[in-house]
Structures are given as C-alpha cells and as structure tokens.
Amino acid sequence: MNKDKSEKETYRIPTEAEWEYACRSGGKSEKFCGGNDPALLGWVANNSEGVPHKVGTKAPNGLGIYDMSGNVSEWVEDWHEDGYYARSAPENPHGPSGGVYRVNRGGGWDLAPVFIRSTARSYASPDNRGTNLGFRVVRDK
Fold it and tell me: In the chain, how many domains are there?
C-alpha cells in the first residue's frame, strides 16, 4: 500500500471484537487462540517458569499472530460493563461508551490454561500495571 507522504499511519489498540476475531484465526471456533492445545500456543502457569517469554516462541494462530493465548493479557479498547454483550449486537459489538474498568484478553503467564481460552476475558483499572499485562497495536487503514 503506497501512501502519500502527507498521510500518516495511525495505530491503536484493538476493540474487544477485533481482538477475538484475530484470536480465533479469523473467526474460527477455537478453544485457544490458534487451536485446542494450550501447551503449543501459550505460556501459562504450568510451563512459564514464573516469567513472561519472548514473543514468537510458541506456535502462531491461523493468521500467523503469536502469543494471543498466554504470556501477557492484552488491553483492548472496550470498557467493562456487566451484561453488556448479552444485550448487544452479536457481530462486532462496540462496547460501552465509558466505565471504570477496561477489558483485557488472552490471559497471562501466571494463569492456568482455563484462563487463556479464546472466550476468557478479564478487566482492570486502566492504571493497572504488571509483568502479566501488555497491549497489541493495530494499524488503521
């Protein structure tokens, strides 16, 4: 894609819907991001030796994206609200317009495999920091 020099590329963190679509290798029914075997796909409590690992040392998902299950939980754009998605559009919901907590997805190196499933979600205050929490960026078109 050739861009005019006056056009600047912009980056952001993904929405929760974008994150899950990418995690599931483009919308497939996968238990973890890239398949059904967490040991092949992610660093978790029983294989991480208590630390995060270099990205790309486990298998990628079907889109070639690494470390969406395990290693570090990833912030997404969406705010958390109990029950929000139960009453939202089933495809590409946009999340609440505000809140106290932001959603994070993917689970970290310090969690059991059940917490890194493609459906697992968590939330925390946006000022939360730690070695088990990070982010992924997407480039806007």
Answer: 1
d(CA 33, CA 37): 9
Smallest Cα–Cα separation from 20: which of 125, 100, 128, 104?
104
Structural domain includes residue 60: yes
Report the percent of the chain where pLDDT is more than 90: 80
Quickly count: other Cβ atoms within 10 Å of residue 99's Cβ.
Answer: 15
List the beta strands (DSSP E) in the chain. Answer: 11-12, 73-79, 102-105, 121-124, 133-135, 138-139
Query: pTM of this prediction?
Result: 0.88
* 135, 71 Cβ separation under 8 angstroms: no
Domain containing residue 59: 11-139
CATH number, domain at 16? 3.90.1580.10
Answer whether 14's CB lies under 8 Å from 136's CB.
yes
33-51 per-position pLDDT tens digit: 999 999 999 999 999 999 9
* Residue pair 61/23 in contact by the 8 Å Cβ criterion: yes
